[in-house]
Amino acid sequence: MDQALIEQLDRWHEEDEHKQIVNLLLAVPEKEREYDAISRLGRAYNNLGLYEEALNQLENIAEAGQQDSVWHFRVGFALYHLNRYEEAAQSFRTSDKLETSNQNTESWLKWSLQKAEKQQRQERRIAAKKAAAVEGSGLKEVPFSNMSLEDFWDDSEYAKKEYLSEPPTGELIASIEEELGYKLPASYLALMKQQNGGIPKNTCFPTEDPTSWAEDHIAITGILGIGREKSYSLCGDLGSQFMIEDWGYPDIGVVICDCPSAGHDVVMLDYRACGRDGEPEVIHVDQESDYEITFLAENFEAFIRGLVSEEEYDTSEDDKEAALYKVAHGKFSSLLEELCTPVSEVEQIDQKIRSICTRIVEEKGYFSFHADELSYLMYDVQFWLYTKSYPDTSREQYLAVYEKMIAFGGEFGQGGYAPGWISEWLDRRKKEGRIVQENGHIRFTDQFAAEVIQQLREA
Fold it and tell me: Could you tell me if 113 and 89 are in contact, meaning their C-beta atoms sit under 8 angstroms apart?
């Protein structure tokens, strides 16, 4: 490719105009596309979320790409988002060997290995359940024997208005099962005959794996009843089919509980191992993580018996005190310390940063940046510090290095972050005209840099 074309593609990449890249490169006859063009096409498809297309393009140059760490990274990225985690880990591992000490690749390798292990556990569990179903399960106990349900439900007016329906008749149950295409488990039917939908007093369920909700548990808002009239019922306008058809949840069973995220995660009955007439498992499905599935319980009754009070996870005061101590006394990461050292525009820059972060902890109860005003100020501060010391920084480079300042900053760190927040902040500042791009490098305008400096001085 000639230099002018390369510069155009780089510019579109920095501006997130990935569709433009695809259109231009597809206009080149397939036989005339060089290695770099196809690799860039794969990257553009990845950035558009078209991972199968990305993989198809990258496989066309597989032989030439074997010694290219970037090629292996882009293949791994596509495989990861196609839930092919074990293969993704292999690609990231190869990329890491070819280009050592790349923090971005190391992070993706770690995430892939974690997801692969979880996926393998799930596959083994489903296989064992299918085998058990073939052998037969023997006599079944009466649902909820030795468990009192008298104090199970919250009787608030909201619960009655949004969830509670009349007791289900046999005719209604049959029609709902026909509409859903699944036989509802006996334990669920027993609970719904006791009360047809509602909000339980205990709304948390412990998990072995972290989810978008918490490291060690999920929470539900309510249990959907059998019916069509209430929005939060199995066949209501916000029921199971709506979540599968409109929200994209996997068509593997029945959405049985909604969650506090207002649609971004749900609890489902999973019929993959047992078939449409068998005893389903209970799973959590996380839209925020590409509909990642987390196993909860062997069956619905086990799920109900396992619900616990949210008070068991209420460590907010202790967490807040620990976070306040961290932001006041925690040692800065080596990178953040390096960036603060030459600053002359703001006196005691380290104390100013600690002051802003203390206000964040006071407001939230924990140390994390999201999309609020103070978080945006800290995104601004980190960007100003980094580009002041490293002015020739591209968007891609900044996103790769961001985590080394505070997100994974050791003592003065958050232990994690959502990359989407940083991308959204960059896009917003660019749209506002506060971040400008010159020759592929990004920086604040002089005026906005002055505003950030002033906010630091006043912190």
Answer: yes
